[in-house]
Amino acid sequence: MAVLVTGGAGYIGSHAARVLQRAGQKVLIYDNLSTGYEFLTQGFELLRGDIGDRTRLMPALKRVQAVMHFAAHCYVGESVQNPRKYFSNNVESPLALLNACVDAGISRFVFSSTCAVYGVPAKVPITEDTPRLPVNPYGVSKMFFERALEAYNQAYGLRYASLRYFNAAGADESGETGECHDPESHLIPLALAAAAGAGPPLQIFGTDYPTPDGTCIRDYVHVNDLAEAHVKALQHLDGGGDCLAANLGTGDGYSVMEVVAMVEKITGKKVPRQIVGRRPGDPPALVADPALAHERLQWNARRSLSDIVSTAWQWWQRKPANLSCQPSPVSNA
Predict the structure, then answer these.
(1) pLDDT at 325
(2) Are residues 180 and 310 in the same domain?
(3) Which member of 11, 138, 152, 160 is catalytic?
(4) pLDDT at 322
(5) In terms of domains, do 277 and 135 share one?
(6) Is 297 inside a domain boundary?
(7) Are 321 and 185 members of one domain?
(8) Is 10 inside any structural domain?
(9) What's the CATH code of the domain at 180?
(10) Which residues of the chain are modeled with pLDDT < 70?
């Protein structure tokens, strides 16, 4: 099968492309390189273009049988400050992609969604029947596209899987690709940079949450486990399986301080840190119930927090020296 991977020059998309290739699939990467990196597409055919550009898209779609869609903006804070950017890139342009898929006869679509569609859940762990009540434009944009997929399935027979990530982290074991954002906003790369003396002290937002050590708890899932779930979702659809939306997480939560302790253990270095106040809207704990993905996709997260930090550290040490991964003024756990 040939698969078009939109956003394949980005963090999760580049990992999914490699896992697809290892599974014997032909991969075409489609990316405008606005936030992705061309070197992450080495070994693949790269088609450079915007997902809203129908003229560029249609010839690419005629060469594939399925689409995996990763191209999106994903900074929560930025989405609040600039919702126009998020609704344009995460809703308007992807709708053009969906229309092109229908017109090209594509019948299988795997969507990179997020646990942000749930907002602040009433209970943890989070199941898929938790109401979708996003609290920021980023989460709203992802929920809108999930709704669009549901409508396009009913009207046009476009079959889909919406995969709701929890905290993606780690790097490919080969060291070929890993996490790098500009600006960087994720806990583990920021902690690694602080430990290596290549970044400012790690900001820890609040130590007074109702958790064992007072810091937020999150479900960290290795990026290659996520990538493998996408392959399984595609196989599920290809085998005639029903459309679905599924959580992708480990089912285990780790606090910010537990992650910092793991970074110090793996690197052998102290993580300089600064305790600052809570950020508005940060839930104390976000942990997945991944039972549905296990039941429907036969998928389990196989890699531990130690694996996540170890692979991220290996990538951090060998990534290109000129690669800009700048810390964000406000980082996310």
Answers:
(1) 55
(2) yes
(3) 138
(4) 58
(5) no
(6) no
(7) yes
(8) yes
(9) 3.90.25.10
(10) 281, 320-333
Does one domain contain both 152 and 206? Answer: no
C-alpha span between 140 and 117 (Å, rounded): 7
- Give yes or no for a contact between 256 and 215, defined as CB atoms under 8 angstroms apart: yes
Give the pLDDT score at 94. Answer: 96
In total, how many domains does the chain have? 2
Q: Are residues 186 and 80 in the same domain?
A: no
**Strands 45-48 vs 66-69: parallel, antiparallel or unpaired:** unpaired
Are 287 and 258 in contact, with CB atoms under 8 Å apart? Answer: no
Residues 208 and 62 in one domain: no
Angle at 186 between CA 180 and CA 190, to 5 degrees: 80
Which amino acid type is present at position 256?
A: V
324: exposed, middle or buried (Cβ count in 10 Å: 0-12, 13-18, 19+): exposed
Q: Give me the residue label for tokens 């209970």.
A: 123
**What confidence score (pLDDT) does residue 185 get?**
81
Which tokens belong to 284? 């104390």
Q: Please name the residues in contact with 239: beta carbons below 8 A apart, sequence gap of 6 or more.
A: none
If 0-12 CB within 10 Å is exposed, 13-18 middle and 19+ buried, where does residue 322 land? exposed
Q: Which amino acid is at 125?
A: P
Length reported for the chain: 333
Asked whether residue 174 falls in the same domain as residue 111, the answer is no
Q: What is the pTM assigned to this prediction?
A: 0.93
Yes or no: say if 239 and 313 are a contact pair by the CB < 8 Å rule.
no
- Is 86 annotated as catalytic? no
